[in-house]
């Protein structure tokens, strides 16, 4: 299959392509020999066009990580990571929503010691920022899920896993607080639900995170224009030595114009009720954006919701999750916990969410940038930067511990703002 960008002078044409592929080939040959392991690792860390990640200490905030990851990754993998659905309006809104919320700092309180520890869904956490699920980590780093799981274990933070790392999750080094993602396929029948639940109970999972917003998959139009193949989520973007994309025989790139239809009935609130009755594992519903659905979540007895737009990768034009947070918190009425994600790039974003009643804020792209560049160490660094920013912002706003953050810490502007949107 011919890629539309074939006519454009390709970036890899500017440097000797052969260098990258030759190194890869050589590393592959030598990988089996422990003598050459260091060399092989060095070659594997080379990014698109022969780029190397900068020294990690030169990156001071999540935006620095984004810039470095963009320079490092194959542009098609970058698009898959960064993109939103359709017009990407919700992608910009996720960031712009934060600009409408203004911190009201209070002074002359004792803030010499700041404590970001939090209790979320019955778990004591070192900080109220969690690792969101993300599929396709191999597109950015081979074996990425394991790197993220290891970082979660080291940090002791809440981690929602996409699975595939069972051995690690059942080992002595496993994270203490891990949740398994399902997008509904496990809930198709009582039998599949039981198998799923029993496995997670045996494995010692903390809970189940049911993502409710991806019953149909959106049009991610950057990837569609790139002729992206979903298989590349598992394998990375394959190119030949001249940099041309490699398609398998008869392979179908992501496209549009197909009428949506699924072979199975899709999950309903009744299924969530059945799941609730089946297990004592905690259950959270991810992708909730309204008071109505939060009230339903309370009714069916789940433990919490994650107010989320799936990183603006599913339904477009839904606004920023931070804007939907207040109505969901109000509907939860303290009966279940409300978490939130979408566009969190700064400690101050987290502070605003906690002030609006969220118990914790999730991130995906920021840790994926760190993971892409440095594996486990990058994930740890990104989360550390975020929670230390949060602590500093608390110190500058007069709150010494998470429990002291309340609704009075912010006010919401009632007019629209423009301003920097998402990183593209
Ligand atoms: C590359 C990528 C893959 C994702 N895959 C999933 C997924 O498999 N399941 C899911 O519930 N959410 C998925 N998400 C959404 C995140 O869990 C999260 O809701 C969102 O990305 C948070 O916004 P942020 O990326 O701006 O931090 C994915 C996000 C990205 C960027």
Your description of this structure?
This protein is an alpha/beta fold. The protein has one domain (58-219, 264-412): Aldolase class I (TIM Barrel, Alpha-Beta Barrel). It is built from 16 helices and 12 strands. It has helices at residues 17-30, 37-44, 62-72, 75-82, 89-99, 144-155, 166-169, 190-203, 221-225, 232-235, 269-278, 291-300, 321-332, 347-355, 365-374, 376-397, and strands at residues 101-103, 118-120, 123-125, 129-131, 159-161, 178-182, 207-211, 282-288, 304-307, 337-341, 360-363, 410-412. The strands form 3 sheets. An 8-stranded parallel β-sheet has the order 4-11-10-9-8-7-6-5. The protein has a two-stranded antiparallel ribbon with strand order 1-12. β8, α12 (291-300) and β9 (304-307) form a beta-alpha-beta unit. α1 (17-30) runs antiparallel to α2 (37-44) and α3 (62-72) crosses α15 (365-374). The radius of gyration is 22 Å and the shape is globular. Mean pLDDT is 90; it is low at 1-44. Bound molecules: flavin mononucleotide (FMN). Residues 81, 94, 132-136, 162, 181, 211, 286, 308, 310-311, 313, 341-344, 362-365 line the site of flavin mononucleotide.
């Amino acid at each position: 299959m011919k890629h539309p960008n074939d006519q454009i002078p390709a970036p890899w044409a500017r440097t000797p392509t052969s260098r990258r592929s030759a190194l890869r080939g050589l590393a592959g040959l030598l990988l089996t020999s422990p003598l050459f392991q260091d060399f092989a690792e060095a070659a594997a860390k080379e990014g698109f066009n022969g780029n190397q990640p900068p020294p990690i200490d030169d990156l001071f905030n999540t935006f620095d990580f984004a810039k470095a990851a963009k320079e490092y990754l194959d542009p098609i993998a970058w698009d898959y990571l960064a993109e939103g659905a359709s017009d990407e309006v919700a992608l910009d809104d996720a960031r712009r929503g934060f600009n409408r919320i203004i911190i009201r700092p209070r002074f002359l309180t004792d803030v010499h010691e700041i404590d970001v520890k939090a209790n979320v869904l019955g778990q004591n956490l070192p900080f109220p920022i969690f690792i969101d699920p993300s599929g396709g980590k191999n597109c950015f780093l081979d074996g990425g899920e394991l790197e993220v799981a290891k970082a979660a274990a080291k940090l002791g933070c809440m981690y929602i896993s996409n699975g595939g790392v069972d051995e690690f999750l059942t080992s002595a080094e496993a994270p203490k607080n891990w949740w398994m993602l399902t997008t509904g396929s496990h809930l198709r029948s009582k039998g599949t639900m039981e198998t799923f639940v029993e496995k997670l109970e045996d494995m010692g999972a903390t809970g189940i995170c049911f993502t409710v917003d991806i019953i149909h998959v959106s049009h991610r139009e950057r990837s569609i224009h790139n002729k992206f193949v979903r298989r590349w989520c598992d394998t990375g973007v394959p190119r030949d030595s001249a940099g041309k994309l490699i398609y398998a025989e008869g392979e179908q790139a992501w496209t549009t114009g197909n009428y949506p239809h699924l072979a199975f009935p899709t999950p309903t609130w009744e299924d969530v009720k059945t799941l609730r009755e089946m297990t004592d594992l905690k259950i959270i519903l991810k992708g909730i954006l309204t008071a109505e659905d939060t009230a339903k979540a309370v009714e069916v007895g789940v433990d919490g919701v994650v107010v989320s737009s799936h990183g603006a990768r599913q339904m477009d034009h839904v606004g920023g999750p931070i804007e939907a947070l207040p109505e969901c918190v109000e509907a939860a009425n303290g009966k279940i916990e409300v978490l939130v994600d979408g566009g969190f790039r700064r400690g101050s974003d987290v502070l605003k969410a906690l002030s609006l009643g969220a118990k914790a804020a999730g991130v995906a792209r920021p840790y994926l940038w760190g993971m892409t560049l440095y594996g486990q160490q990058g994930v740890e660094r990104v989360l550390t930067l975020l929670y230390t920013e949060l602590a500093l912002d608390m110190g500058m706003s007069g709150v010494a511990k998470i429990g002291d953050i309340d609704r009075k810490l912010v006010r919401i502007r009632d007019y629209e703002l423009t301003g920097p949107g998402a990183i593209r």
